Amino acid sequence: MSRDEVLAHLKAVANAADIPVNADFEGGYADDAEGVARNVALAVATGISGLSIEDSTGNADAPLYDFALAVERMKAARRAIDATSSGVFLTGRSEGFIAGRPDLKETIKRLTAYAEAGADCLYAPGIRTKNDIAAIVHAVAPKPVNFLAGAPGFAVAELADLGVRRISVGGALARTAWGDFMRTAKELAEHGTFGGFARGASGGELNGIFKKDWAERRGK
């Protein structure tokens, strides 16, 4: 998606939600620090309450921005937010573990630098072991660490005990819904049976959710 498409989406979601909205703002839709600052300011103007900036380039040959540039990009995002006096929450992401560079030492080096550059929260999607999680939590303390729970493995209580203070699920809930949809459709097509329907929410349950939401919005 283009930057402008994302900005329009963020504005629509922020306007529709009654709770704070955090934006996955990718790499800021620019390579240079000035471009990141400009785009972060535009994102803040949509009404979001938080956003993340990552150090992934999208280039398989050099998947992470050079360390010095990555730090400058984070500083630029911080300056842009501070200039708005919005209080938007900045998450600094290091993508090595999901971009083909699963190096804990390098990840900690980057996250520590992002914390010093002004990130409010640190995030290394793809970390999986208790030792790695604990090492990152310790390295950036007292700033909070976000953990990506995209698959079974840890319970919320276990992550809390490790020092994690923020958890995101990425697209896992959507994948779960689509996975059951596809399995049920396949069952119907291949076997002519409808067993998967038993796992669905009832019409009454869904109507109750949407009616409540509609009533609350009409009352505003």
What percent of the residues sit in helical stretches (DSSP H or I)? 40-55%
Structural class: alpha/beta
- The best one-word shape is globular
Question: What would you report as the Rg, rounded to the nearest angstrom?
Answer: 20 Å
The share of residues in extended strands comes to 5-15%
Superfamily (CATH H level) name of the largest domain: Phosphoenolpyruvate-binding domains
Low-confidence stretches: none
The tally of structural domains comes to 2
Distance between the termini: 33 Å
Topology-level CATH name of the largest domain:
TIM Barrel
Helix-strand pattern: HEHEHEHEHEHEHH
Number of strands: 6
Give an overview in words.
By secondary structure, the protein is of the alpha/beta class. The protein has 2 domains: 3-170, TIM Barrel; 175-218, no CATH class. The chain is built from 8 helices and 6 strands, in the order H-E-H-E-H-E-H-E-H-E-H-E-H-H. The protein has helices spanning 3-16, 33-44, 67-84, 104-116, 130-140, 156-162, 172-191, 203-218, and strands spanning 22-24, 50-54, 89-93, 121-123, 145-148, 166-168. Strands 1-2-3-4-5-6 form a 6-stranded parallel β-sheet. Strand 4, helix 5 and strand 5 (145-148) form a beta-alpha-beta unit. The mean pLDDT is 95.
